[in-house]
Amino acid sequence: MRNPSRERLQNELAYLRRKTVELEDQLRSLYLSRRVNLSLTAKGSLDTQETVGTGARVWRRIAERQAQGRDKSERENKRLKLVLEGQIALAKKLEKLLQKRPDVMVMSDSSGVSQKRLCLGQVEDPSSMYDLFLSELDVLYAQMDSVFQQTGLEASVDDSFRHAYVKTRRGPEDEEELYAELQDVTIIPFELERASSAMWHAVRRRYNKNSYHSFQGVMERPDDTIAVKYRSQCQRSGQDIELDAIMVMCRFVERDRLAFVWRSVSCGDGAFSGMYTDETGWSVLKRVPPDSGLDLTGCVMHNCVHVVPKRVDVASDLQQNEIGLLTNVVIDSYEDDVIALSAMMEDLLLQDTTQGLGVLQIVDCVGGSDLFAQDTFDLSAAVLFPIVTLIYSYHNFDFDHEVYLTSLEALPPGSFEHLARTFANPSEMALFRVNIDSLRINSVLDLVLRISMNLTFCYRVKRVMEALIWTRHREYASGVIKSVDAPTQQNPVPKGVAVAFTAFSLMVLLSTYKAISDSKVACSAHPDCVVYAYKWKISDDLCPCVILIDVDLTPKTYKEWIDPVDAYDKVKALAASGRLTSLQIINRLLLEWPEELRLCHGLRTMYVLVDLAV
Fold first, then answer.
1. Fewer CB atoms inside 10 A, N or C side of the chain?
2. 251 confidence band (pLDDT: 50, 70, 90)
3. 350 and 360 share one domain
4. pLDDT at residue 321 tops 80
5. Is residue 62 over pLDDT 70?
6. Which of 326, 354, 382 corresponds to the end of one domain?
7. How far apart are CA 250 and CA 261, in angstroms?
8. What is the mean pLDDT of residues 29-48?
């Protein structure tokens, strides 16, 4: 005997078993495909890591600098300090070897007259040091290319390049001396002109802010030279250490690059008394070469600094590790300056970039005159021009008050001729009405348009004021220092956009000219059409008349009075376009209304006066 419930359960069980097998097969296939995808993804990620562009790396570095700030700087300082400590250890070993040679000076002394001028300990007036450094800058500038060629930095675009070495060279008295050489490369993803201006801006702000003495003498290039005595602070082993430094830096503007050359000397207090360091530096900012293989446009900055540790008194009992410690402090201070200048320069460039095109034009070009001129033109076209026309009408249109007063006395009270406009020149009245109507709000559309125009104008005036305030703020923050570099060039507009804009402008000009010409030709045969619209003539010769005035206020003969001119055909022809808004007929014959007047949906005023008493 069949049991439907049991059969149904058996069928469901069989279905579930088959479905389980199918799902297991699908799971197995998905697992295998996932393994393949993971292997391909891993391989692709490795390829991506290998081929990631320098542009993305540079922008990532800037973003991390902006987001993390000081954290990354401290980590970089620690890394450089470890590298430098290793180099100092190597220098100590090298020092022991060099001490066996009598003509070698490991740490230069200042017993010579020329070397004593480099000591800051007893210097109250550093003018002599300023003069000395200023006289050396041109010679150092001439040596700059050879310095970068010897270090291998000239063609490098690797922004991860950052090294510190301890080397030896022949001193001023033909002795060998040790010095630390710092090398680094930085990629700046901005145009050379903007980066050059921002770099010099940042340098002057950085050192003028910390200086407590500046050179008061005469310099050949005062706009391109900095000569200051300043104090800087840095940390070493958790302690704050202050350094006094005298620095002279000069900027050399070339066609395709910007160069900085500086000389400085630094000394410390307390445990570092009797020691100082002599520094020489070169920096070059130039465009990224087209064949560099980098996927970005911008510029690259190469830096090379020589730091020479010295002692004021050769007879003083100073340990070499103490002098090495001062060298580390000076290098730490240099790294702090580089990081601060880089951050300040990036802030200036990013701040300029994020201000928007309108503000950039105002700040970098003409201080808001373009935008102000556009707003003035809009205000003149929308509001001032009709007002000026009304003022012109008031001073130039004539109205015969004597005739009007005579009519008031002769005509009975309540007569239509008591209206003053019946005695005015109809053409002048039409011009006045057109301009006064342009200032009135006659419909909801007019209300919306006027409010929109006023809001737009207020917004643009607000933009102008914000731009002027920003300009003042920037000049104040920068100490009213303006770059004398090559003028900043505007970003090029794509040719397609320029062609489209030019074509649209020509189309507007040609269409406007054609509309005016066609309307003049179509209405030239109708002198009674005092106001007409401008439109293209497509297939008809209809005059787009807006205001029709045909009056004869003073008939000269009896025949003209009893047999007026028939105005039917004229009204019919000028109403055919459907644009008629005002109609005035006086002493003209009009026995019936033309059917074309029904097309004039905008007809607002109609004044017809015909004397048929005779």
1. N
2. very high
3. no
4. no
5. no
6. 354
7. 6
8. 54
Q: Kindly state whether residues 484 and 603 are assigned to the same domain.
A: no
Choose between 121 and 64: higher pLDDT: 64
Cα dihedral 350, 351, 354, 356 sign: negative
pTM (global) more than 0.90: no
Mean pLDDT of the region 371-379: 60
- pLDDT tops 70 at residue 357: no
Give the pair of three-digit tokens for residue 467.
Answer: 């731009």
Tell me what pLDDT residue 113 has: 35
Averaged pLDDT for residues 203-212: 76
Are 386 and 439 within 8 A, CB to CB? yes
Boundaries of domain holding 386: 356-491
Give, rounded to a whole angstrom, the gap between the first and last alpha carbons of the chain.
123
Which residue has tokens 């602070």?
Answer: 233
Cβ contact 238:369 at 8 Å: no
Q: What's the token pair of residue 264?
A: 């400085």
Q: How far apart are CA 337 and CA 349, in angstroms?
A: 18
- Please enumerate in sequence order all residues whose Cβ is within 8 A of that of 212, keeping only pairs 6 or more positions apart, or say none: 229, 230, 231
Angle formed by the axes of helices 70-98 and 54-68, nearest 10°: 100
- Please answer whether residues 484 and 222 qualify as being in contact, where contact means their C-beta atoms are separated by less than 8 angstroms: no
The CA distance from 313 to 482, in Å, is 44
The CATH code of the domain that includes 272 is 3.30.530.20
Interatomic CA distance for residues 328 and 228, integer angstroms: 23
pLDDT of residue 252: 92
| CA–CA distance, 435 with 390 (Å, rounded to integer) | 7
Contacts of 430 (CB under 8 A, 6+ apart): 530, 531, 547, 549, 582
Neighbours of 175 (CB within 10 A): 16
- Given this model, what pLDDT does residue 282 score? 92
Q: What is the domain count for the chain?
A: 3
Please give the biggest Cα pair distance in the chain: 141
Question: Could you tell me if 425 and 405 are in contact, meaning their C-beta atoms sit under 8 angstroms apart?
Answer: no
Do 305 and 412 fall within a single domain? no
What pLDDT score does 366 carry? 42
Backbone angles phi, psi at 65, to 5 degrees: -65, -40
Count CA atoms closer than 13 A to 541's CA, side-chain side.
5
And the tokens for 392?
Answer: 């012109």
Q: Which of 303, 337, 354 is the last residue of a domain?
A: 354
Q: Which residue has the higher pLDDT, 33 or 53?
A: 33
Residue 147 has pLDDT above 70, yes or no: yes
- Lowest mean pLDDT across 189-198, 422-431, 595-604: 422-431
Per the CB < 8 A criterion, the answer to whether 398 and 353 are in contact is no
